[in-house]
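Q: What would this chain look like folded?
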Amino acid sequence: MGQQLEFVRLNTSLKGLISRALSQFNRYVRDDVDNFHWVVIEDPETIARTLEVLSTDLPEDDIAEIVTRLPYLILLFQRGDDTPSIPVEATLAYLSILNHAGMVTILRQCSDSHRLAGMFSLDRQTWNPSIFMLAGVPNLDAQEGQPQQGGCSFF
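A: My prediction, written as structure tokens:
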């Protein structure tokens, strides 16, 4: 069994990064911009409460274990009562900005249709969650930082 990856927060402004990603998303959805609403969560307590609702969408044990170590949760809500149709090109444009900043994301579709909107002050009759992403930056040097090697001192 391999060693677990550690994930850390971005070394830049999350709000600035999301603004850039959102501008790319909006560029592809054009006239339908008002039909989508993104929710970005950094607060660990809010992430934990939200993951309780999303737990049915993360059935795999290995993914459920990784999820608790990712510092960001991003939800996409869509206006309407119909089954959500995820805008593929726009979502890929959004993800390309996040991935270019070094973020690793786990993307899943939401099955909840009545609890999540209310948690974020969105009208439950209007907004339905369609997808969610868990994200973070892998700290690839975390394992190397532990042992002290000869020939080098850190102060």
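Strands lie at 7-8, 36-41, 72-79, 104-109, 127-138.
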